[in-house]
Amino acid sequence: MAENCLLIVDVQNDFCPGGALAVPEGDSIIPRINGIMKKFKFIIATRDMHPEKTVHFSKWPPHCVAGTRGAEFHPQLDVSKITLFAEKGTSDADDGYSGFEAANIDLAATLRKRGVKTLVICGLATDYCVKATALDALKHGFHAVVLTDCIRAVNIHPDDGEKALAEMAAAGVRLTESAAIPG
Question: What's the predicted TM-score (pTM) here?
């Protein structure tokens, strides 16, 4: 049984430099994420898998369309250590920001079955998918920890990432750095 689970959010080509919806310095977190994977026995990675036409693209440029290079994980991410993959944003009628909206697995049930109490969350983007996943983790009764040195924000407004961190902290998400994770 795993008490803790590392949850890597959307480290996909389209969210990294050169991608359709690039997060500034999105790829800079990958070496640190690869390094902390050894501290976990159970690792889940989420990924957007949008259809070609979705209401989501009325808010954002097309990105992470299923079957495209943009939807693939960044090639520097060590996917060999990932236990499960959760695909989200697969509907043409919603955004799919949270990993708990995955279409291919019931994330909350999967975590409970594995005995997970705490989700340690990293990835892209702080102000959208990381925040939504962390807040949903709390709603589902899990402890949520966000690794502040392993996330990056879209920052449509310059302080969006900071506002997202404040919102998560106010809700009960623990904010820390990867060096604080034992193992």
Answer: 0.97
